[in-house]
Structures are given as structure tokens and as C-alpha cells.
Amino acid sequence: MQPADQVLRFAGDVSIDKCVITTSGGVSQDIAAQVIAISIYEDLFSPFMTGSLVVKESFDLVNIFPFVGEEMVEIEISTPTLEKGNIKGKYYIYKLSDRQLVGDKNVVYMLHFMSMEGIIDLNKKVSKVYTGSPADIVKTLMTDNINGLQTKKEVFTESTARDIKFISNFWSPVKCINYVTNFAVNKSHCPNYVFFENRFGFYFISLDSLYSNGVYQQFTYDKFTRESLPGGGDAKNVQEDYRRINEINIPTGFDYMDRLRNGMFSSKLTSYDINKKLYNVKNYDVTKNYTKYNHLNPNPILSNASIFRSNALLINYPRDNNAFSGFGDATNFKYLQERISLMKMAEANKIEITVPGRCDYTVGQKVSVTLNKIEPTSEKDNDEDTIDKMFSGFYIISAINHYVTRERHECNIELIKDSLQLDINRKK
Fold first, then answer.
1. Rounded-to-integer distance, Cα 238 and Cα 228, Å
2. Residue 358: which residues within 8 A CB-CB, separation 6 or more?
3. What is the DSSP letter of 288?
4. CA–CA distance, 269 with 261 (Å, rounded to integer)
5. Residue 259 has what DSSP assignment?
6. CB of 138 closer than 8 Å to CB of 195
7. pTM given for the model
8. Which residue of 27, 159, 181, 363 could cross-link 42, Cys pair, CB 3.0 to 4.6 Å?
9. What angle do CA 281, 286, 291 make, to 5 degrees?
10. 401, 331 in Cβ contact below 8 A?
């Protein structure tokens, strides 16, 4: 028989196993009993995990510790019966806010925290030349004790196809990594790399690679009801409950003007070399490059009749050939327009869902979403006919907020996709 705390009672069941605050002087205190709520934030386009604690207490911990912005909090949150993927980490508390008196002797306030590597990044400025593959440079910047983020966490890097060289002009380590990310291309010469942190470590990986992963979870928005039992009540099916979307929001279904202005469809790049007194003009057309790389769904998000011209986005780009010996062109001239297009396309379709929380949900995972059409149905319609193929399909988790109370765990998830299940060029 499983222990009581290892029985999954319902979808969203959770256990706050540890919430220990340690001061700079080495004093530690577990405040799990005083925590009202914990939020853990992850973002595919952000380098560090962040979060917050809502604390209600009557011990005046602010003065006892005291809280001065030099504390660490160690958090362990688990989903009962889940063996892998539970949230465990040590974070730096950098801010106290929203302190309010509640009743006579109680006070409520919020503590904001982030990964320690974020604090290290704020304190370092690097002046150094870096040469080599982007993957190797990122790993160096993450682990180096002098010029890097000194991380002891896992660093997962996808191998890259070409070497680069640049000078860090008193940039922070993360600014260097973001620069490298813009230059990286994978073995398929796809330039849509991202750098982010989740509870497993740091990732330097292409969206092209994430698109090819297997589906981690299937989410459905429908009127699912449990089977009724003969003696009354209903049959518990926790796995089915986990798949149900409680709330869904589509902030913007599409924005053609935004896509056009930001270079998703096309662009014109004019590069100039002041040493050689030469310039070069290159036009980009998304339709000529679309099939080169992986996509989440089978069909593109634009039709054959889409209206766009290269002049919609004009880019002036300086080049300096032979600035470094052995590097004829050390710029990102060749892949810049393609990266702009692919990164914009990745977020072209975005939805927000709220689902029962599980600790193993994290950014970068590929999920499936099934929504039904908002239209009358008849007995002749099969399941396939009722599916909304515009918003259903495969998505990548681009951001997630794990909201945890002592009673329940809820996940607010932002999902993005670069393609459609619906063939918009089909004949009516």
C-alpha cells in the first residue's frame, strides 16, 4: 500500500514538501506552513526561472531573519506518485512586496525569487574574445567561474554547424549568450535557436529540434463527464481529468499586419562593408524556404494567395569582412532574415490554457490540443467533422506558471505553434 502522501487523490493534487529560507548568516527556517501560495514561472524566451511566495505569518520573520535581499529559498514541490519531473530548486530572494497587515497580529507579503545565475549575471561584465562553435561557447559561458554564470546545473546544448568569433564588449554573460543564439544554426542549417531554463537545467536548442519531439500530453476542451456508477457517484479517472482544459483564451487569433511588419513573410536586407566600399541586397521569401525545416503541423499558416512584398521590412546591416583573421565574414548576414521569419512564425498562433497542475509540465514540451468547432452539429457529423482544425493541433509550451496552494496545483500555460492542421489552400 502506498503512503498517504503518495496517493493521487485528484487531478491537481500536490504536496509542498519543503520551503526553507536561509539567510546570508546561515540561519535556516522551513516556512512551508506559512506559505499561502507558490508561483513558479518558466519561459521559452527567458534565460532564468523566476517565482514568488505569498506568505502569511505572525512571527515577524521580516525582523527575525531579517529579510534584506540576501536570502535563499529552497523549494520542493511534488505531484503524488510522480517519479520524475518534480520541482526542486534553490533560488535567490531579491524582493519583498505587497506587505499588508491582516487582523491584529498577522501579516501577508510576497517574496520574489529567481535562479542564482540571474543574480550572478547582474554582477558580471565580460571583456573577452570568444571563438568556436556556438554550443561550446554557451557551455563555457554557463560554467566558467570567472566570466561565466558558474552554474552547477545541467547544461543541454544542441550541436551547431559553424564556428563564430566575436568580442564581448563588457557584456553580461547572458547578453553574450543571446548574441551567440542569434548566430547559431543546427546541422540542418536551421537558425531558430533559443536559450532558456527549466527545472531540469539550461537549454540551448533549436525550435526545429523541439518540433520533432514526441507529444508529451494531449489536452482537450470539451464537455467531458465521468461515467456514473450503479450505486451513485461517478468513476474517478484522473488521467482523463488531467487532459481536460478548464479555461482557454485566444488573445489574438491572427495579426496579418504584425506578421508583415516584423518580417515573417518577407524582408529586404541591405548590407554594406565600409572597408571594401561594397553593398549587397538580399530579398527573403518565406514560401521558398518553408519546406526546408521541421514544423509542428502539416500545413503553413499562409495561403498561396498571401500578399506580401520584400519592402515591408527593410534591414540595414553593417558588415566587416576579414575583421578577424580566418573569418571572412563574422556577421550573421546569411541567416538573419531566415531567423527573423522563423522566430516570428513560431509565435504566429498563440493560445492560453488553464489545466490541472502536474509538476512535470515544463517549457519546450510538445503537446496536442483538440478544440471543437463553435457550430451546430448533426447526427451525420463524425468526430473529425467537429474538430476546430484552425486552433487544434500540435503546440510547444512557451511559458508556464505553476500556481500551487496547499490544496491544489494549477498550471496556466501559454502555447505556440508555427503551422496549421487546416489546409487553407484546399478547394471548397
1. 15
2. 79, 82, 85, 242, 409, 411
3. G
4. 14
5. H
6. yes
7. 0.92
8. 363
9. 125
10. no
Local confidence pLDDT in tens for the 428 residues of the chain: 344 457 888 999 999 999 999 998 888 999 999 999 999 999 999 999 999 999 999 888 888 888 888 999 999 999 999 988 899 999 999 999 999 988 778 899 999 999 999 999 999 999 999 999 999 999 999 999 999 999 999 999 999 998 999 999 999 999 999 999 999 999 999 999 999 999 899 999 999 999 999 999 999 998 665 554 455 445 578 888 999 999 999 999 899 999 999 999 999 999 988 778 888 999 999 999 899 999 999 999 999 999 999 999 999 999 877 788 777 788 898 999 999 999 999 999 999 999 999 999 999 999 999 998 876 665 666 666 778 889 999 999 999 999 999 999 999 999 999 999 999 887 65
Whole-angstrom Cα distance, residue 397 to residue 338? 22
Provide long-range contacts, Cβ within 8 A and 24+ apart, for 35-40.
Answer: 35/406, 36/108, 36/405, 37/403, 37/404, 37/405, 38/75, 38/77, 38/402, 38/403, 38/404, 38/405, 39/401, 39/402, 39/403, 39/404, 40/75, 40/77, 40/87, 40/401, 40/402, 40/404
DSSP type of residue 310 = G
- C-alpha distance across the termini of the chain, in Å: 58
b/e 387-401 (16+ beta carbons within 10 angstroms → b): bbbbbbbbbbbbbbb
* R_g (Cα) of the chain, nearest Å: 25
**Residue carrying the nine cell digits 527567458:** 46
∠ CA(368), CA(373), CA(374), 5° rounding? 135
Q: How many CB atoms lie within 10 A of CB 50?
A: 18
Asked if 342 contacts 207 with a C-beta cutoff of 8 angstroms, the reply is yes
The answer to whether residues 357 and 410 touch, using CB atoms and an 8 Å cutoff, is yes
For residue 354, the one-letter residue type is: T
| Non-local CB neighbours of 324 within 8 Å, separated by 6+ positions | 131, 165, 330
Residue pointed to by grid coordinates 559553424:
162
Residue type, 337: Q
Strand, helix or coil at 349?
A: strand
Phi-psi region of 341 (alpha: psi -120 to 50; beta: other; left: phi over 0): alpha
| Cα–Cα dist 213/198, whole Å | 17
Length of the chain in terms of residues written:
428
